[in-house]
Amino acid sequence: MIIDQNENTAIITQEKATSIELVKKIQALYPKFKNNNIIVALTSLNTISLAEVVEFLELSKTHRAAKHSFVIVSNQIDLDEAPEELAIVPTLQEAHDLIDMEVMERDLGF
Predict the structure, then answer these.
(1) Cβ 4 vs Cβ 11: under 8 Å
(2) Residue 28 — φ and ψ, nearest 5°?
(3) Dist. CA 68–CA 55, nearest whole Å
(4) Where does the pLDDT of residue 41 fall: very low under 50, low under 70, confident under 90, or very high at 90 and above?
(5) What CATH number does residue 45 fall under?
(6) Mean per-residue pLDDT for 81-87?
(7) I need a labelling partner for 110 at 20 to 30 A (CA). Which of 63, 66, 80, 85 fits?
């Protein structure tokens, strides 16, 4: 797991761990970046199952309830099958764009 801090966004890149291990590591380190937006980059995975994606659901709900963005980056996930509560985009640039939009919405009171 690689953590790259960029202003108010933490980019967490998966190297070798499974999704379940990655979720556990993020939860353990959560106090370190709980006040930042989080991008989880799963682009190094060739395949990812729906069950693996769902592992991030509780963490995402907690983080979004605290008024911060939580975005997963992967082009291997079928968006039609993924839970609507998860923000999933195919590229890192789209993750940054989504966070910018969500920050603007929060600033406007939405």
Answers:
(1) yes
(2) -65, -35
(3) 19
(4) very high
(5) 3.30.750.24
(6) 91
(7) 80
